[in-house]
Specification:
241 residues, alpha/beta, Rossmann fold, globular
Amino acid sequence: MSFDEKYFSTHTYANTSFAKYGQYWWSNRFFAALARRHGKKESRLLEVGSGLGHLVAQLEDGFQTVGLDLNHWAVARSKREVKRTALTTASAQDLPFADESFGVVVIKHIVEHLPDPARALREIGRVTAPGGILILATPNLGSLLKPWKGKRWIGYQDPTHISLKQPEEWLELIQNAGFSLHRTFADGFWDVPYIRFVPRQLQKLFFGSLGGVQAISTFVFLPMRWGESVLVIARKNPTMA
């Protein structure tokens, strides 16, 4: 499957993207808050895999923003959302930027789509300035409730998820790319239903409450296995002389 207009219109990413206060809206708000809290204000910020531009548009007021996506249609569609963001069409595995040119890099649910995510992370390490911040999210093979879902687990539902890995593997790749881990955490259990015959809304309230509190408060507290996605905040190591 290619990342074309059909992909954006048929997957969960897009189906909730225009619903204000829906799951996608809260997710973007949460990531924007992380970037503001951990990134240096007014620094250059790159979103790798900026999609339809909803997240990077929220960060224009505090950063010099750049959005990059492989899909030409998505980049063109992003122009409806952004005002000052520079938009680029390119691969995450070959970033068209100078070394150490960004203070913040956000890559949200992109690495699992890449044939060579290690290369993409090395490229991110190359373009991130010493002391700069990486914010990454990807499906969590280590989720405590994943065994309950089996083949129905959310991470398996997108056929373009070709690089699913255990959290420990992602952490090793991030460190190998020149980063030190700052925070590792999860996003909560939102892939309901987990239990047969129990009403979906009741499960959403029970299982999703902690993730909801974290998303609304923007304060990170969920352990890495307590969610369907693993999230990482890492800092670029100083350049060795």
